[in-house]
From TrEMBL:
Keywords: Cell membrane, Cobalamin biosynthesis, Membrane, Transmembrane, Transmembrane helix. GO terms for molecular function: ABC-type vitamin B12 transporter activity; threonine-phosphate decarboxylase activity. The keyword Cell membrane applies. Converts cobyric acid to cobinamide by the addition of aminopropanol on the F carboxylic group. GO terms for cellular component: plasma membrane. It is found in: Cell membrane. One of its GO terms (biological process) is cobalamin biosynthetic process. This is Cobalamin biosynthesis protein CobD. The keyword tRNA processing does not apply.
Length: 311
């Protein structure tokens, strides 16, 4: 079996496993990884050579798991496929993303603002205690669009490039960026490598995610927002993804949001109507359609790869 055909079969199986089981409810590997990362940061993030210390911490946190994943699948065959399926299930967060988004959208639609605020606080870093319904909807919609790339499509891209070890590398690097990639006094230098690695690994997947959103929504509007609004966003990868997604949905995102007790003015994303619960449901549907598109293209490519040796 050609290697790419092996990966496409494992990809479909891993996505189905995620859809069936979701993330582990107890003893999630990423929770343990986060504990390890916190332990390393506390011991290595000290004055002097912070960039080098951050690079060492990143290597100690990520590389042993990637190398272990590569070693487990080295013998090939059915065992390698099983290993890849398991690693993709660990790294993928499609069902979890949908569940968290529904947990915000349903109470918001029912008028239970307190519950909607509480649940959106689980998936965003901004202050949520005083958000109005529009702001809750905006926060949830932005999170769905951005995490569509971080939790799903970036993982699938690197899985197709390097199998299970690639998916593990991307997900762990993305997790460390979320923990250390801040421009604060504590993390500006220590987290620099974590932020740069995540930017590099996510560059192409983010643009493929943006293109998927554009193709499956209001295409011309999405492409316009991507081109004109994406570059103005603070993240080189989140900008294109969120701008294209907002344009695809014809909804207004970005703008003012509360962080750490103060209002932060962010560039606008998309245009059209103000977000509400329906915007969240529409974002979920857009991510699901994009996932179906990626699976379909992967299967087609796998079938072509299978047929080439027999042509």
């Amino acid at each position: 079996m050609p290697p790419f055909t092996h990966l496409t079969l494992a990809l479909v199986a891993g996505v189905l496993l995620d859809r069936l089981l979701g993330e582990p409810r107890r003893y999630h590997p990423l929770v343990g990884f986060g504990t390890l990362a916190t332990w390393l940061e506390r011991r290595l993030n000290r004055p002097g050579h912070r960039i080098a210390r951050g690079a060492l911490a990143w290597a100690l946190a990520v590389l042993p798991w990637v190398l272990a994943a590569a070693w487990l699948r080295v013998h090939g065959g059915l065992l390698a496929i099983a290993i890849d399926v398991g690693l993709l299930w660990f790294a993928l967060g499609a069902r979890s993303l949908v569940e968290h988004a529904h947990a915000v959208a349903v109470p918001l639609q029912a008028g239970d603002l307190a519950e909607a605020r509480r649940r959106v606080g689980w998936i965003v870093s901004r202050d949520t205690a005083a958000l109005n319904p529009t702001q809750v909807a905006a926060a949830g919609t932005e999170s769905v669009l951005e995490n569509g790339n971080d939790a799903i499509f970036g993982t699938l891209f690197w899985f197709l490039v390097a199998g299970g070890p690639g998916a593990v590398l991307f997900r762990l690097a993305n997790t460390l960026d979320a923990m250390w990639g801040y421009r604060t006094e504590r993390y500006l230098h220590f987290g620099r490598l974590a932020a740069r690695v995540d930017d590099v690994l996510g560059w192409l997947p983010a643009r493929l995610t943006a293109l998927s959103y554009a193709l499956l929504g209001h295409t011309r509007h999405a492409l316009h927002c991507w081109r004109h609004q994406g570059p103005g966003w603070k993240s080189p990868n989140a900008g294109p993804v969120m701008a294209a997604g907002a344009g695809a949905l014809r909804v207004q995102l970005g703008g003012e949001a509360p962080y750490h007790g103060a209002m932060t003015q962010r560039p606008p994303l998309g245009s059209g109507s103000a977000p509400d619960a329906n915007s969240l449901f529409a974002a979920i549907a857009l991510v699901n359609r994009s996932l179906a598109l990626w699976i379909g293209i992967s299967l087609l490519a796998g079938a072509i790869a299978w047929g080439l040796p027999h042509a």
